[in-house]
Amino acid sequence: xxxxxxxxxxxxxxxxxxxxxxxxxxxxxxxxxxxxxxxxxxxxxxxxxxxxxxxxxxxxxxxxxxxxxxxxxxxxxxxxxxxxxxxxxxxxxxxxxxxxxxxxxxxxxxxxxxxxxxxxxxxxxxxxxxxxxxxxxxxxxxxxxxxxxxxxxxxxxxxxxxxxxxxxxxxxxxxxxxxxxxxxxxxxxxxxxxxxxxxxxxxxxxxxxxxxxxxxxxxxxxxxxxxxxxxxxxxxxxxxxxxxxxxxxxxxxxxxxxxxxxxxxxxxxxxxxxxxxxxxxxxxxxxxxxxxxxxxxxxxxxxxxxxxxxxxxxxxxxxxxxxxxxxxxxxxxxx
Length: 335
Ligand SMILES: Nc1nc2c(ncn2[C@@H]2O[C@H](COP(=O)(O)OP(=O)(O)OP(=O)(O)O)[C@@H](O)[C@H]2O)c(=O)[nH]1
Ligand SMILES: [Mg+2]
Description:
This protein is of the alpha/beta class. The protein has 2 domains: 1-156, Spo0b-associated Gtp-binding Protein, Chain: A; 162-334, Rossmann fold (3-Layer(aba) Sandwich). The protein contains 4 helices and 14 strands. The strands form 3 sheets. It has a 6-stranded mixed sheet, with helices on both faces. A 5-stranded mixed sheet has the order 3-1-8-5-6, with no helix packed on it. The chain has a 3-stranded mixed sheet with strand order 4-2-7, with no helix packed on it. The chain is rod-shaped. 42% of the residues are buried. The structure holds guanosine-5'-triphosphate (GTP) and magnesium ion.
């Protein structure tokens, strides 16, 4: 599976070049003045968003990324040239943390920007700088400054407006297929989806992005199934659709599914229940009208959701989907 959404690396900015200590030597000028130039600045390390990438696979194996050092200064007041910057391309939505302090340093979400992460050292001063009325022949020059070195953790958090969560097999991917041109795999078995998929929905006025992530099961926050690591991809979304299977193979009623999912979302480190969430009951085509009504009443009685936060759909036939999309567009695009 070549989808990696977490990585560790070290970045090293270039050191500044040292300043030169040198004196002018020309014919007929026996005591030339100091002419040692400054050292060049070390290169910076920067991040840039690569819109065509959606994985951190290039950053496996804790690589070290180094910018070039500045060159030394030389005689004839010649400054050393600056070291070349190093630009590292990352997928849109990559968050950069200091791996030692765990502090969030950067959130790379703008394709037009370059994000500075480690600054190159300034070059040293050549001896020409130290000339004064009292010292006309200084020998002093200074070394360059060290470039910054940082250990980093990269986390890819997808940029989506709406997140789909649900038990495996609830029909999340079928729904994303139906409403967008994304083509995640669909299968009549749990954990068909093994990595997040994004789909763009073209609304009547604007478009927005839905993220389909692998299914969650009870105990996911303790590592059951694929765990909760994929929840980071819906941690930025403003709205969650809690997908419930109306026709589960296991003995898990829709109400029970929703409440178990809610618990997993609450236990997650960012407490995802703070988001707006709606319940989407999928596979209406497999049940009779009165059974559907009963289920809705059961959810309303047992869980803290109101009538307009519950949707009955069929991702197979499209039943109820228009209504859901209309509400989604209003909700997502007003924020
Ligand atoms: N009858 C019926 N079947 C559906 C509907 N939606 C999905 N399915 C079927 O349910 C099964 C699971 O669908 P997926 O879309 O792969 O489910 P998922 O939630 O993405 O599952 P994971 O990726 O494993 O988490 C497939 O066999 C689908 O064809 C529906 O509305 N009606
Ligand atoms: Mg799926």
